[in-house]
Amino acid sequence: MKSKKSQFEIFRQKTHIIIYGTNTFAGRLFDLILLGLIFLSVLLVMLETVAGFDIKYHDQLIFLEWVITIFFSIEYILRIISINKPFRYILSFYGIIDLIAILPMYLSLFFLDTHMFVIIRALRLLRLFKIMNHPHFSGQSQQLRKSLIASRGKIVAFMYFVLISCILIGSLMYVVEGEESGFTSIPISIYWCIVTLTTVGFGDITPITPLGQFIASLVMIMGYGIIAVPTGIVTAEIARSEYKRGRESKRHHCMNCGKDDHSEESKFCYNCGDELDEHS
Amino acid sequence: MKSKKSQFEIFRQKTHIIIYGTNTFAGRLFDLILLGLIFLSVLLVMLETVAGFDIKYHDQLIFLEWVITIFFSIEYILRIISINKPFRYILSFYGIIDLIAILPMYLSLFFLDTHMFVIIRALRLLRLFKIMNHPHFSGQSQQLRKSLIASRGKIVAFMYFVLISCILIGSLMYVVEGEESGFTSIPISIYWCIVTLTTVGFGDITPITPLGQFIASLVMIMGYGIIAVPTGIVTAEIARSEYKRGRESKRHHCMNCGKDDHSEESKFCYNCGDELDEHS
Amino acid sequence: MKSKKSQFEIFRQKTHIIIYGTNTFAGRLFDLILLGLIFLSVLLVMLETVAGFDIKYHDQLIFLEWVITIFFSIEYILRIISINKPFRYILSFYGIIDLIAILPMYLSLFFLDTHMFVIIRALRLLRLFKIMNHPHFSGQSQQLRKSLIASRGKIVAFMYFVLISCILIGSLMYVVEGEESGFTSIPISIYWCIVTLTTVGFGDITPITPLGQFIASLVMIMGYGIIAVPTGIVTAEIARSEYKRGRESKRHHCMNCGKDDHSEESKFCYNCGDELDEHS
Amino acid sequence: MKSKKSQFEIFRQKTHIIIYGTNTFAGRLFDLILLGLIFLSVLLVMLETVAGFDIKYHDQLIFLEWVITIFFSIEYILRIISINKPFRYILSFYGIIDLIAILPMYLSLFFLDTHMFVIIRALRLLRLFKIMNHPHFSGQSQQLRKSLIASRGKIVAFMYFVLISCILIGSLMYVVEGEESGFTSIPISIYWCIVTLTTVGFGDITPITPLGQFIASLVMIMGYGIIAVPTGIVTAEIARSEYKRGRESKRHHCMNCGKDDHSEESKFCYNCGDELDEHS
């Protein structure tokens, strides 16, 4: 009995190394296959909605989808088995994503209502989030995210200003242009204002009266000018964080008192006067 | 008599603490309710203009609107009562906004003309400005505003250049394209040029002749290139102000000779050798 | 005879002070009137092309236009008379602009052909360039222009890259989409590519085939990404020039050897060892 | 025999100087002619596709095209003859481009199928790449390219994030808007999302339902905000590389102790006190 349990324990450890680790060949291979299946799965979801393609290859799509679902199901079970605190994984963000990502096909056996069906199957796209947990990507955009988080406060303040402006200008345009020009309600006018201020400019609703066109011109020039603000915020933040990183890499460490921000040319610690080691 | 007056005085002081203060629980609660009602009010103004919604829930909308108006009316009166110099508040920017924000519903009892009605009710959106006076927001976007004000001169010079360009190019397009393509007058052509230069591109007016399309291409590339200018101005300003702020926070002041730009870790003044105070 | 000549000489000098100077009250007044007339003139040119407006106020427009033309004519003659080297002024850029700006109305007496007429009258818009010579504006955007000129080389290299890309992608789209989608020739396809890459997006020509839409997506993401390049160039340049200006203002001047780039805290010249004056 | 071979050798050397060199008058003239012919060739390809123009000047276009093709053919042969390692050139990127650039006209003699014909002739546009090898341009955009390559990693991470967002939002819009609004499949919806997020905004597909318009608004504001990211990355990189270049150009090298970061005006090494060489 004991030997059987330890055999299972060995299997668990091996599985853990393959699924969670990236140092062994099997671990890297597993990660690659997972990545490929995620992309294939996303491609399948997209192609299913292309009418001509779905009619022609419906059976193949369903078959491939089942293959992927079963693979992800096995992966999900193995992840639970091989981890020490399974509930911590199950209730984590990526654990829930993993679960939702395998459900759609099983659910599609029960729900036959077409619209519900479409929504459930679209859930499979959440598999894209699995990539964020993938060792290949998780470490990558670290510094970028830091800069964005550092300048988050200012960006939110800016977004808030943009929104207030859009509500006020949108309402003004609703009064000026009226329903004949397509500005049928204030929410629609705000939608138009966002479309214009962000320089997207669909053209589905456009001002017709001279006054409306004049206000629109002001909005556009304003939008063209204030795009500088978020850019400025993020740029300053990235420049600052890079400057800091650059300085940190140059820091010299004093073996005596621990101070580590001496200039590159310093020969003596400014704090305790101890001579600095050349290669510290 | 005296006791009654002092009772009123106590009521005034309590009210002042709740309305103008943010340190007590009641003060914070009041601020939160005010914020919620402002947003609800804005939502109501927007929903009223959505035809389908207004027909279905007309009475409820009017009822809610009256509740909000009465709340703001009481708030307005309490603000006047509880402040020491009431006229200073009444004639201030936010005082006028507060007044205008409560008038529409009362005025709507007298004005029954539909178009006038729409404009008056839209005035309620000015309540959004009340938020700027709200303690939660007033302190927030300080630094952002400073950077924008500091680079205002250059941005105006840039905007002026954009406007001159748009007048000249717009007139050129009017001559080149003519009325058949939708360029019916110079103001319309200038409007088109602004739409194009700011990369909005509605598509309601587009050049048709080869020469017109060639000029349009130049305008677009120009617009794509010169967007760099406001961005550059604001970015440089934000970077500069952050760099300055960063340095200021690190400055230590020497009590002996007055030098105040020692590094954060310095223990002795680099100028006179006097020991620096820890908390200076 | 001599007294008469000197009287004319006095008139010339007074005129010179008023027209070219900005220190006297009369000089500033003249500049303001000139500025007002330039803007009025531009407004007139624009309003003339608005069909409804021109029919209603045709005579008033023509009258005002003649007033402005005669004022500018007198100004042109006075400028020639009051300057010492008249031909230098006449042949300068602003001299030619001044001349062209007064010709249209006189020419309109001879040319009655409608289309020619429109073009000649549009020449009056060149009066906008007169503003650039105006003391109020000429000094303003100095630093901005310097930054742009300094980064001109890189911007041209970038524009060149954009153009090459547009020719190649435009041709590719012509082959992929063909004439049914509106991509009727390579120049039109290049025009479409510029419209798309610069994120203008008129929507007058849009890809219909899946492959075309895929390429369009790549172009858009590319355009979205490479807008960073001119912005980065200009921003870096502005930041650099401001940093330099900031440093220059701090420079200390050595009275002994003339070196003027000592750091703010230096007490002795690094070049000759002479003590630096506190207030230099 | 030997004299003949050496005569050929002299011809080879002379040709090499003209084709590959830029120091002699003949070398510069050759480069200019080549540049002119490349631009003329690109212009011809473009004009051929303009229906009206091609019908009118078909023979002239074909004649000019043959002249250019023959010139490029001779240039190609001379390049092979005059270089020491011909196969290295033939198999290089620019060698292959040079070959492809002359083939279309010869191939057009054999392929008479119209569509194939169009594609083959479009290959002539690859001649644009020849410019990159042109001495006038090859040295130009060096620093620009370096900055882009240095920030490539972050830009790719950013692009990846944009793509993931577009797939998720596109699918959401497909479910929300449905086929009646033009969102006929997920790939089309993703195409719409890219068009919107990059602020291009063609307007060929636009949301109609209130919920769809609300999501679209969020996408637009998001797109407006995150354009800051690539800009920030590239700007910080350009600023950094310029700062570095600026510092490097000022570095003086001390022959005694090896320190190489003296200011431009320093006469003595700050480290060892040795006099600095004027031209180091």
How would you characterize this protein structure?
Chains A, B, C, D: This is Ion transporter. Chains A, B, C, D: Residues 28-240 form the Ion transport domain. Chains A, B, C, D: It holds the Pfam family Ion_trans. Chains A, B, C, D: InterPro entries: Ion_trans_dom, VG_K_chnl, Volt_channel_dom_sf. Chains A, B, C, D: The chain crosses the membrane at residues 32-55, 61-78, 90-112, 155-176, 188-208, 214-239. The first copy, chain A, has 280 residues and is an all-alpha fold. The two termini of chain A are 57 Å apart. The radius of gyration of chain A is 29 Å and the shape is flat. The model of chain A has no long low-confidence stretch (mean pLDDT 79). Chain A contains 13 helices and no strands. The first copy, chain A, is 72% helix and 0% strand. Chain A has helices spanning 2-20, 25-48, 51-82, 86-90, 93-107, 114-122, 127-132, 135-138, 142-150, 152-177, 186-197, 210-226, 228-250. Chain A folds into 2 domains: 7-133, Four Helix Bundle (Hemerythrin (Met), subunit A); 136-251, Orthogonal Bundle (Helix Hairpins). At the C-D interface, helix 10, helix 11, helix 12 and helix 13 of C face helix 2, helix 6, helix 9, helix 10 and helix 11 of D.
What's the arrangement of secondary structure elements?
The structure is a homotetramer of 280-residue chains.
Chain A: H1 2-20, H2 25-48, H3 51-82, H4 86-90, H5 93-107, H6 114-122, H7 127-132, H8 135-138, H9 142-150, H10 152-177, H11 186-197, H12 210-226, H13 228-250
